[in-house]
């Protein structure tokens, strides 16, 4: 008999529910059953493994919380499946009629979910292999470092405006070999610059304070960490499995960071296809036209993974589309790619991809549409083109 373990993960503990079969009355079972609460320590991990589950189910609650429990279970040979937040919420409320959300109700719902849907793989969040998981971790770490640096740089520029105004708005970037940006390195004393030495002698500013030098040192440390992460990402992307993907990415002019973000979300592309490995297309009656209409389901799933799938919201005479779900990181990265690679004509790709996307962008801007909306529309078009290129 299969032992199914539902785990609801909190910051430093989990609520566990072990089932051998789905209870006939889940709501009554919820009130009668004694749920386990296990702490994130050696005793808690040992108690978890002593349950000897065959399959464990949990929500994808970020790398920081679910990683500990999932890794120990996987090492013990337990199959770990992830259930999406939205899917679990609907299942708990609509199918099991459990009371208001709490940890015990979630752990029970997770265990029951397996019995109802274990033969439908698409009901579960895709479980990625070790390389993909590591790429995902590094991509998230880079995004974090970018967020951390921005307020430090803003503070530095504000202070330099009265301490050394001649360089307050200088754009200083890291060297290709990993050297820290010259200005920040010079401010904290790790790089020499005769140019900045001379400017500082003639400055009208009031003098650089220790606080600015400490901030510059922090930035340099963050930049070094960023460079080491980028080097590891480059090595991981050299995996032979990604060669065809990267060849297609090159046609779009995607940089290493964007390639990493995309790989972490869409590999393998077969996960979006039907059982025969082909794009899933179904013909259904159109709601308004009442005519047979093609539904490109694989493309839709792909767009949603990239955060580029619009959903229709209708109420009375109001109809609007809104992007809901998917990867915020992908959506932002593609938007930035449009801003830097497609919008500036001097940087635009010379192939059919660049021409098609460039023409769309120019046409939309020419008729006066808001530029942010135009960029998002071009990014969505790029996602559809990318899917078709990958399918080929």
Q: What does this protein look like?
A:
- This protein is of the alpha/beta class and 392 residues long.
- It has 3 domains: 4-123, Nucleotidyltransferase, domain 5, CATH 3.30.420.10; 131-237, Helix Hairpins; 246-271 and 326-391, no CATH class.
- The chain contains 15 helices and 9 strands.
- The protein has helices spanning 26-32, 42-50, 62-75, 85-95, 103-117, 130-163, 182-188, 194-201, 210-237, 243-252, 256-266, 297-305, 328-342, 352-366, 371-391; strands at 4-9, 13-19, 36-39, 55-58, 79-82, 281-285, 292-296, 310-315, 318-323.
- Strands 3-2-1-4-5 form a 5-stranded mixed sheet. The protein has a two-stranded antiparallel sheet with strand order 6-7.
- Helix 6 (130-163) packs antiparallel against helix 9 and helix 13 crosses helix 15.
- The chain is globular.
- The two termini are 44 Å apart.
- Residues 312-319 have low confidence and may be disordered.
Give the N-terminus to C-terminus distance in angstroms.
44 Å
Low-confidence stretches: 312-319
Give the averaged pLDDT, no decimals.
88
The strand line-up of the biggest sheet is 3-2-1-4-5
**Helix percentage range:** 40-55%
Name given to the CATH architecture of the largest domain: 2-Layer Sandwich
Provide tags for this entry:
5-stranded mixed β-sheet, Helix Hairpins, 392 residues, 15 helices, single chain, 9 strands, Nucleotidyltransferase, domain 5, 12% strand, 3 domains, globular, two-stranded antiparallel sheet, alpha/beta
């Amino acid at each position: 008999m299969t032992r199914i373990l539902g785990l609801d993960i909190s910051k430093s503990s989990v609520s566990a529910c072990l089932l051998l079969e789905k209870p006939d009355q889940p709501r009554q079972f919820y009130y009668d059953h004694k749920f386990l609460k296990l702490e994130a320590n050696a005793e808690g991990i040992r108690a978890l493994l002593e349950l000897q589950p065959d399959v464990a189910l949990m929500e994808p609650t970020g790398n920081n919380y679910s990683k500990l429990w999932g890794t120990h279970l996987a090492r013990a040979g337990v199959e770990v499946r992830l259930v999406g937040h939205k899917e679990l919420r609907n299942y708990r409320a609509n199918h099991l009629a459990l009371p208001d959300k709490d940890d015990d109700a979630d752990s029970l719902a997770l265990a029951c979910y397996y019995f109802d849907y274990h033969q439908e793989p698409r009901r579960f969040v895709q479980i990625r292999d070790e390389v993909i998981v590591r790429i995902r971790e590094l991509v998230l770490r880079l995004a974090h470092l970018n967020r951390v640096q921005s307020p430090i740089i803003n503070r530095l520029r504000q202070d330099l405006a009265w301490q050394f105004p001649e360089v307050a708005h200088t754009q200083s970037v890291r060297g290709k070999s990993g050297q820290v940006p010259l200005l920040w390195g010079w401010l904290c004393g790790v790089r020499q610059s005769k140019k900045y030495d001379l400017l500082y002698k003639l400055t009208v500013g009031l003098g650089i304070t220790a606080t600015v030098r400490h901030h510059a040192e922090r930035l340099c440390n963050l930049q070094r960490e960023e460079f080491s992460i980028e080097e590891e990402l480059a090595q991981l992307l050299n995996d032979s499995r990604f060669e065809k993907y990267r060849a297609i990415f090159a046609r779009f002019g995607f940089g290493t960071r964007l390639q990493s973000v995309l790989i972490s979300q869409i590999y393998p592309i077969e996960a979006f296809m039907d059982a025969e490995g082909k794009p899933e297309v179904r013909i259904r009656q159109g709601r308004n036209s009442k005519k047979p209409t093609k539904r490109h389901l694989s493309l839709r799933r792909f767009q949603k993974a990239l955060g580029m799938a619009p959903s229709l919201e209708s109420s009375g005479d109001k109809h609007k589309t809104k992007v809901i779900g998917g990867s915020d990181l992908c959506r932002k990265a593609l938007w930035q790619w449009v801003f830097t690679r497609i919008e500036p004509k001097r940087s635009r790709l010379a192939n059919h991809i660049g021409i098609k996307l460039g023409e769309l962008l120019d046409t939309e801007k020419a008729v006066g549409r808001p530029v942010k909306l135009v960029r998002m529309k071009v990014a969505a078009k790029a996602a559809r083109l990318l899917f078709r290129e990958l399918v080929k």
